[in-house]
Design brief:
The complex is a heterodimer. Chain A has helices spanning about 5-25, 25-50, 60-75, 90-115, 120-140, 165-190, 190-200, 200-205, 210-240, 250-260, 265-285, 295-315, 320-330, 345-350, and strands spanning about 155, 160. Chain A is mainly alpha-helical. Chain A has a domain at about 15-245 and about 340-350. Chain A has a two-stranded antiparallel sheet with strand order 1-2. Chain B has helices at about 5-25, 45-65, 85-95, 110-120, 150-160, 175-190, 210-220, 230-245, 260-265, 290-305, 310-330, 335-340, 380-390, 395; strands at about 30-40, 75-80, 100-105, 125, 140-145, 165-175, 195-200, 225, 250, 270-275, 345-350, 350-355, 370-375, 375-380. In chain B, strand 6 (about 165-175), helix 6 and strand 7 (about 195-200) form a beta-alpha-beta unit. In chain B, the strands form 3 sheets. In chain B, strands 7-6-8-9-10-13-14 form a 7-stranded mixed beta sheet, with helices on both faces. In chain B, strands 2-1-3-4-5 form a 5-stranded parallel beta sheet. A two-stranded antiparallel sheet of chain B has the order 11-12. Chain B folds into 2 domains: about 30-145 and about 290-365, Response regulator (Rossmann fold, 3-Layer(aba) Sandwich), CATH 3.40.50.2300; about 150-280 and about 365-395, Response regulator (Rossmann fold). Chain B is globular and about 65 Å long. Chain B is an alpha/beta fold. Chain B starts with a helix and ends with a helix. The chains are: A mainly alpha, B alpha/beta. Chain B: It holds the Pfam family Peripla_BP_6.
Chain lengths: ~375, ~400
Amino acid sequence: MRTPLPVLVGIAATAVIGLVLPFVLDRGGLALYIDVALSACVVVGISLLMGFAGQVSLGQTVFFAIGGYTAAVLVLNDYTTAVPVLNGVPPALVGMVAAPVVAGVIALLLGIPLLRLHGHHLAFATIAMHLIFLVVVQQSEPLGGSVGLMGIPGLSVGPFDLAGHQSMAFVSLGVLALVMLVAHNVVASRPGRALRALATSETAAESAGVPVGRYKLLVFALSGAFAGLAGSVWAYYVGYLSPEMFPVSMSITFVVMAAVGGMGSIWGALFGTVLIKVVVSSLGTLGTASGMPDYAPAVMSYAVYGLVLVLVLLFLPHGVVPEIRDRLLPLLGPRRARPPQGGGSTPREAESGATADSEPVTSQSGAGVQPSGHGAPGSS
Amino acid sequence: MRRSTPLLAGIALVLATTACDSSGGDDSGDPIQVGYITPLTGDYSALGTDNEKAVEYAVEEVNSNGGVLGRDIELITRDDQSNPDQAILGFNEIMNEEPAAIIGSAFSNSAMALLEQVEREEVPYISPTPADEQVDPVNDHVFVIPAIAGTYAERALQYFSDEDMTDIAVAYSETSYGLAGYEAMSEKAEEYGIDLVVEQEFEQDSTDFGHIISDVENSDADAMITWATGPPGVIMTEQYADAELDTPLVMTGSQASHLWTEPAGEATEGVTVLSSIGVVGDYLPAGHQKEVIVDLAEGYSDEHGEAPPQFAQDGYSAVQVLVSAIEEADSADPADIRDALENLSVTTPNGTFEYSEEDHAGLGPEAVSVNTVQDSEFVPTEWAIERFDEAYGEDGEE
């Protein structure tokens, strides 16, 4: 169960880089940093959902948007004066707490019917959920309709004005750290181990007494809450929300980030997000550089981006982080920790020789559209 | 010791001069940085690329004529990918370079997303998209280039009223443009003695307008006006033509380009279309306004092999407005440019802009022409020609 040293070093290095970057980045860099950190919150949720619970969702943007709208509506209408308990609590903070709660509860309610579906059907149902959400927002006067909600004030808590780019970067980093910590604890917990079994074979897990339906629902709600929390910070940062900001393509991009980084890996979610966002941003800058031909932006953002994706998925099919880990760890440590044999581990998990670090053995049974995870190479 | 006094004075003088130089450092020969955000990819790339061609054309024209305040203009371009999020990221990258001003996205939602940012950063923002929300209420730093839906609505009402069309059917899409157009019409209809007999809303992704068209058929409307952008504008036109109603169809500025006439084809024949005067510049009486339009049309066609579409005129006018403001301010400082914009009066292919503290749209109804489509070309109605003579004729103008 002990985390290997190189992994600890990696985590420490990432944390240090995350903390130092806001001091050295310029304006554009900070905006990208915030975008990356908040997107990563959503992607961590997707990675949990797909890699651990074996459920695909092409509608996570909905929860990101719900979080944003929740925070925005609360701040714009300032309900804190109406509710005596909340008197004196900064409205922005109320928004940031309410956003993940509302998004999580909505995910829970939507999940009850949706998660009865599997594979492709679930993927389609989540896309449908996304489209319905967009129509509802467009029709909803209090949410600004298709015109959008304008003038959402920047984040400030009491006397502290956090609306600046640098402070927003730290807020985003804090939110991401919180999300990753919660995700890590869920994965390391007893339900987490049951979830891993679930991803491998739902039938086996069920026959071993894992309450499959309830666990899947909880992960779905949790991923919704992560997205909702990130959405609230994004709403404070940009100060404007409209349905056009949450296209279906955004949900797909989130899944791509999870796939590139490595399904079922929390760190993979982070690195997948960084990679895709940085590539898209630099291709955009390159495409509009002076002296580039007229067609450069289109070529860069479609063709080159597509090519990068194809190459990554061809040569690193399990995602960047699991591939690197699987190649480096055997070189660094003589043997990997064995799973605890009794206790909370399910028969299926022991059988498939799941490693007990925080990464799962994902689908070999191939649950529909779920990309095949890595099969714990090297272990029996 | 006595000799040191002139020396000291000399040093002081030199220091003072250099101090002046560095404080006014942006008055040197360095180019003036102007940010430019435009949708080059995604759903609105057709708009964005037309717009970009014209902005670049205008900047080259300014630079080859010696620049502004003796300095070149340098564009910092970012693609917003037809996505407001990307517009915000691009905006922040541009702000790194401390631009004098920003020319904004032709995609209205990107523009709306930037409003808040622009106000926080206090940088002048010239917007080539006609969303009314940008100027109603006025945002200190946002100045709009195309005639807004409210201006088109007023022109349409003037036309209906003068032509004795008192019962009007209105259909509008649930976009910012559609809603603004409809609201402006219903607000001012009474003032012009007009009755809105059909009022129908439709979704931006609607593909069937049968129920709206039959409503019009069953009413005694004298004309049917549609506020739409993009695909629904085309589909409505086609279905309306198929229904062969006697009630004339009126479309607004969003349809005044080849992006509408080409896909809708035959169905556009005889349709009444409101447009910027720049679209029908050839029909204007000789005068300064016509010269400005013809100059752009000729120069742009030489370079791109086609007449400048509406979005290109907006892009060109945006640069022209900004350059005049910089000249007027005699400074490339954002705050000075903003103040100059508010007192600007400049004639562009879109019409003569007269911004003020209360009006950041700048154009009046006289900048809008009412045309009919004849052989896929926009030809001003007689009513419009009369209005041109009043506003731009030799007697009218001077």
